[in-house]
Amino acid sequence: MSAQAWLQIILTLLAIFFVSIPLGRYMARIVMGRPTKLDRIFDPIDSAIYFLIGRRVATQAMTWKTYTIHMLVTNLVMAIIIYLVLSLQNHLPLNQLNFPAVDPLLAFNTTISFITNTNWQAYGGESTLSNFSQMGAITFPMFTSAATGFVVAMAWIRAFTVRNGGTDLGNFYRDLVRFITRVLMPICFVVAIFMIAQGAVQTFDASVVAHTLQGGDQTMVVGPVASQGTIELIGTNGGGFYNANSAHPFQNPTPLTNIVLIILMASLPASIIVAFGEMIGNRRQAWVLYGVLGTLLVLFLLLCVVPEQHGTPMLANAGIDTHASLDQPGGNMEGKEVRFGISGSGLFAAITTAFTTGAVNSAHDSYTPLPGITFFGQMMLQCVFGGKGVGFLNALIYGLIAVFVAGLMVGRTPEFLGKKIEKQEIILVSLALLIHPLVILAPTAWSVLAPYALSSLNNNGIHGYEEILYAFSSSAANNGSAFAGLNANTPWFTLATSSVILIGRYPPIIFLMAVAGSVARKPTATATSATLRTDTVSFGVFWFATILIVGALTFFPALVLGPIAEFFAMWNGQVF
Amino acid sequence: MIMTALMLLVIIVSYLLMLGLVKFAESVINKVLPARLRDAVPSDTNAAARSL
């Protein structure tokens, strides 16, 4: 890789790191209700919203159960609204291109996908949805689903800060409103203006006609692209206005916007780790976790960009120069934007699967086999920072397992942040952990045997298997990116991915909230010299090893049949 | 139209099932954790570890 490419990657990672620190501290202040300089602007807005939803509901203290039920019911109400908007879009305004109502199965899949922050798209945005649907059924849940993941994580952290056996985990509505109005909205507003200045489209019009140099006319679909494309990345959502997503020049117009979007995509999930340290009053603990996840991210990133820069043996045998130079990016450029090159595409792809965003600026289907391990691995672990809030919770699942195993190994009471971790927490944590492989591997196994599933494939053999595995990994991880090559708009894949998305999202959250409720009511033990400290480098190494070992034991066979087998096939002269 | 209504029903039932899971998770906490453990204040974590 060229020095310029390395510089781009290093500077981007450093920018993510340095943005996450002040942002995380700001978010912690918001969650803890501490004053900020922006209160004068946002307090009246929040008060108006509390008035609308009922001040008593918006201020009551909630136990884990109340918090979770309110979260589920709110999500249900929003899901119904989204579904109705999609199903009735032919009767709603801003449908200048006269799109028909979305097919019920597709509307169901899209509703489930967007309310859960997954943004799996079995449709082409510009050829299926009106501008009203793009705003009312797509952009709207991008804010609320991102905020839902975040507030659940914050409630969970509160459980460890509750002293003397309390049960108050905060108020769901207050957390949700404050995160949207004080974090997501302001950032999105500023970034959307920047995106428009760079050339992203933002209009209520539905299309423009361009007169081409050949003398013909070309109709191009436009709409509120910048506003959607901004929350799409910042909220780790990933659902693009266009089918080409962030590869489309109307949505991601310049290499500069590409870098800014990568930084923003990663900043909020990384900030949650910083906020975690502030809330528990132990920054050292947060840096240990940050170090563990950062190390994983760098390793997976290298596994993505380095092999991609080397290209394939077939390119070399054909006499094609794959070296990077001033004239060309080199490597395997199939499925990539020339504007972004190997580093801009590989970095985006690694970040979008690590932070489970799902936006794409290149075709993941066209990468060489080893980057496939990065895509699959990060979605399967779902904790390499991960999506907003949920990724953080998954990292803590592995942390609790590491605490339990390490505590028993050295004969100390398993404790995390002063709270005893006992049988019932481990049962729930294990359930939350096991759901993820179950909803990936079981439907994948079924699909590779079912003719109605195989008929959706554009590739046979190893790569076809990967297309199916990717679909369910992406759905289960609330990622939403597609490997391409798979027609997901069939009854089987629509229903199967919807089920996987639902089961991959809510049961783990419910079980983890129950864990939060369980630990909240426990008294906080005072740390002694006999306490197993979790804020040390040695525990960080153990945490890192736990993630890799548990993850590898669970998913390695699936990876062997996929990208690893494809890697060896490539060296034997077979590419897909 | 029937299909549209049916899928709406599926959405509602799915969330009701999730609410059922809340009850399940609650039962795991309450059944497995006896009151004496739940309310105990471990003043000596070494003693607690030895008791395991």
Descriptors:
heterodimer, A: 576 residues, two-stranded antiparallel sheet, 4 strands, B: mainly alpha
Uncertain parts of chain A = none
Low-confidence stretches of chain B: 40-46
Largest sheet of chain B: none
Number of helices of chain A: 20
Proportion of residues in β-strands of chain B: under 5%
Distance between the termini of chain A: 24 Å
Q: Could you tell me the number of beta strands of chain B? A: 0
Distance between the termini of chain B: 60 Å
In short:
Chain A is built from 20 helices and 4 strands.
Outline the structure in words:
The complex is a heterodimer of chains A (576) and B (52). Chain A has 576 residues and is mostly helical. Chain A has 20 helices and 4 strands. In chain A, strands 1-2 form a two-stranded antiparallel ribbon. In chain A, helix 10 runs antiparallel to helix 11 and helix 16 packs antiparallel against helix 19. Chain B is an all-alpha fold. Chain B contains 3 helices and no strands. Chain B is rod-shaped, with a radius of gyration of 21 Å. The N and C termini of chain B lie far apart (60 Å). The interface between A and B is large, with 48 and 32 residues.
How do the helices and strands line up, and which of them pair or pack?
The complex is a heterodimer of chains A (576) and B (52).
Chain A: H1 3-31, H2 39-53, H3 55-59, H4 64-87, H5 104-115, H6 125-128, H7 131-161, H8 172-198, E1 207-211, E2 217-221, H9 225-234, H10 255-280, H11 283-310, H12 313-317, H13 341-354, H14 369-381, H15 390-410, E3 415-416, E4 419-420, H16 423-447, H17 451-454, H18 461-476, H19 491-520, H20 537-571
Antiparallel strand pairs in A: 1-2, 3-4
Helix pairs in contact in A: 1-10, 1-13, 2-8, 4-5, 4-7, 4-19, 5-19, 7-8, 7-9, 7-10, 7-19, 8-9, 9-10, 10-11, 10-13, 11-13, 11-14, 11-20, 13-14, 14-18, 14-20, 15-16, 15-20, 16-18, 16-19, 18-19, 18-20
Chain B: H1 2-32, H2 35-38, H3 45-51
